[in-house]
Design goal:
There is one protein chain. This protein is of the alpha/beta class. The strands form two sheets. The protein has a seven-stranded parallel β-sheet, with helices on both faces. A six-stranded mixed β-sheet has the order 8-7-9-10-11-13, sandwiched between helices. β2, α1 and β3 form a beta-alpha-beta unit. α1 runs parallel beside α9 and α6 crosses α7. The longest helix has 16 residues. It is elongated. It starts with 17 loop residues before the first strand and ends in a 13-residue tail after the last strand.
Length: 338
């Protein structure tokens, strides 16, 4: 399942060192002090979302007496990430792998090799294996999974759109999807379509659906096209905050910003503030630092020989408000990344 990150807000990397697939690994760095060393394989590194996940793993290593944490930048390149995993296994320098896969299927053989050497493998954000919405361990020896159920997330967003139409019938909704070339996003799109066929959606019509490609400019053009075809759209649902930035620009340009209810996803600092001040109707809740922390905790504790009560975690369960931020609960939510 090839996948770009939900968000790609660039941040400074000056304070962090990332090893490439062609870089060397020093196997002498192992666990000589008895503390489990952790390799974190990110799908990419130059954005705040990924950095929040890494910060969570680092915090877990500190809290649970882990060893050195080393991050690897997959650069959205599945072949590169697989090579990084293979090199890390060969090095003998790591006891725990936490991985956000670029391609959830392609990484499995290399991760099986790691598990066979008693490396504790925890998949983060996206489940590793053929089923991207499963919280099950999908290969032999997998230690844990802290992953998102993409169908569930999309259903939460669609249900919020139905709520946004509570005082208006008929009501027209447009959906700005991510990228249907990704399995996760196809599942999300199917879930949105299904939600508007339920009895609760009586009088509500999904009149438009286009991909935003996780890009503000692409999303701006897509929203312009949707509103040109149907200028009476009442609610706009966007699958990512970066896409929503472009959508807002489009709405401002056509004079509809402020009278179209916006539902976004990702929970950046700016998006959470937009819910707080009423600019957005609601927001899908993501807590990437908490995901990384839990994934690191599972791997480190298991590497130490300790029991872990739960090793399959739905990312929504780590949010203090569940899957959705709205006016009623926004005061209880703190964004974990910009």
């Amino acid at each position: 399942m090839n996948r770009r990150t939900i968000l790609s807000l660039a941040v400074s990397m000056a304070s962090l060192m990332f090893l490439s697939a062609c870089g060397s690994l020093d196997s002498s760095e192992g666990s000589a002090d008895g503390k489990p060393n952790v390799a974190v394989f990110l799908s990419a590194s130059a954005n705040a979302f990924e950095q929040a996940q890494l910060a969570g793993v680092e915090a877990a290593a500190k809290d649970f007496d882990g060893g050195q944490v080393t991050a690897f930048d997959g650069a959205f390149d599945s072949t590169k990430q697989v090579a990084q995993i293979q090199d890390a296994v060969t090095s003998g320098g790591f006891d725990v792998f936490v991985i956000e896969p670029v391609d959830a299927v392609a990484v499995v053989p290399a991760l099986k090799s790691a598990a066979a050497k008693n490396i504790k493998v925890v998949c983060m954000f996206v489940a590793c294996g053929p089923d991207p919405s499963s919280l099950d361990k999908q290969f032999d020896g997998q230690a844990g999974v802290v992953a998102m159920n993409f169908e569930q997330v999309a259903t939460v967003l669609a249900t919020s759109a139905i709520d946004a139409c509570a005082d208006k019938r008929p009501c027209k909704v447009a959906y700005l999807n991510g990228d249907v070339t990704f399995t996760s996003d196809r599942l999300a799109l199917d879930s949105v379509n299904s939600a508007f066929k339920t009895p609760e959606a009586d009088g509500i019509t999904l009149v438009a659906s286009q991909d935003g490609k996780y890009d503000a400019a692409t999303s701006r053009k897509a929203v312009q096209d949707m509103f040109q075809r149907d200028p009476d759209i009442d609610v706009l649902v966007s699958y990512s905050d970066q896409q929503t930035q472009g959508a807002v620009q489009a709405l401002q340009a056509i004079g509809r910003f402020g009278n179209v209810k916006i539902i976004s996803n990702g929970a950046t600092e700016a998006a959470v503030e937009a819910v707080r001040n009423g600019t957005y109707f609601s927001e899908g809740a993501s807590v990437p630092r908490s995901w990384g922390y839990k994934a690191g905790e599972i791997g480190i504790k298991l590497a130490q020989g300790n029991d872990v009560s739960e090793t399959s975690i739905n990312t929504s369960d780590l949010s203090p408000v569940g899957g959705l931020i709205n006016q009623q609960n926004v005061s209880n939510f703190t964004a974990e990344y910009k």
